[in-house]
Amino acid sequence: MAITYTSGEQVEVYRFSIPATILIPLIAVFLQAWLSRRFPFFTIFDLPLLVVIGFATARRNPLAGLFTGGLIGILQDALTGLQIGLYGISLTVVGFGASSLGIKLDVENAGARFLLTIFFYVVHEVVFFMIARGLVGLRIAWSWPHELLSGVANAVLGILVFMMLDRVKQRT
Amino acid sequence: MDVLGRYRNLIVLVGVLFAQVLGLAVQVKRTSDSESTRLIRVWAVGAVTPFERALVWMQTSSGNLWHNYFYLRGVRAENRSLKAQIEQMRLEQVRMSQDADQARRLQALLAFKEQFISQTMAAQIIGGTGSELSRSVYIDKGYKDGIKADMAVITADGIVGKVLRVYRSTSLVLLIDDQTSGVGAILDKTRLQGILRGTPSGEVVLEKVMSDETVPAGELVLTSGGDGIFPKGLLVGRVTRVTPGSELFLNIRVHPAADLSKLEEVLVVTKIDERQAEPDQTGVARAVDILAERLPGVPSKSESAEKDGEKGAAGTAKTTTSTTAPGAPTSPGSEAKPKAAPPQASASGGAPVASPAGAGSGTVSSASSGSSPRTTPTSTGTEGVKVSPKPVKAAVAPKPQPAVEDSPH
Question: Residue B180's closest CA among A31, A65, A134, A140?
Answer without folding.
Answer: A140
